[in-house]
Amino acid sequence: MKKIAKLAVLTAFFLVGASACSSNHETATESVTSATGGESLTMEYKKISADEAKAMIDAGNVIVLDVRTQEEYDAGHIAEAIRLESADFETEAATVLPDKDATILVYCRSGNRSKTASKMLLELGYTNVYDFGGINDWPYETVK
Description:
Layout: H1 2-21, E1 28-36, E2 39-47, H2 50-59, E3 63-66, H3 70-75, E4 82-83, H4 89-96, E5 103-108, H5 112-123, E6 128-134
Parallel strand pairs: 2-6, 3-4, 3-5, 5-6
Antiparallel strand pairs: 1-2
């Protein structure tokens, strides 16, 4: 069973990596090593631009995850973004984000918390994580 799960994760990373390579946009990846059953498995989240995130949002079938505080979220956020502070990931991620294979686009205010949150999501078993930095660099519409 563990081998099947590992194979599924590796296959997902290969497919995501292959589709990212075919894009005209350059993406960066960062590896996170997670212990699974006593073995190490290296996983990656993708660092993408606001333009790439906007294109993915417009195409649909993504979850936009805002990891800022409630006050920051209330001041302005991306439409339909789900708010979940990274401090609450361990207790609430499974409820708020039940599909660990869903495409999750993560942002914060400046990009620091989104990077940390992306790594945490991978450690919790999420497989399709994209960090597009901070809302400070988001040139598109926001809502209050």
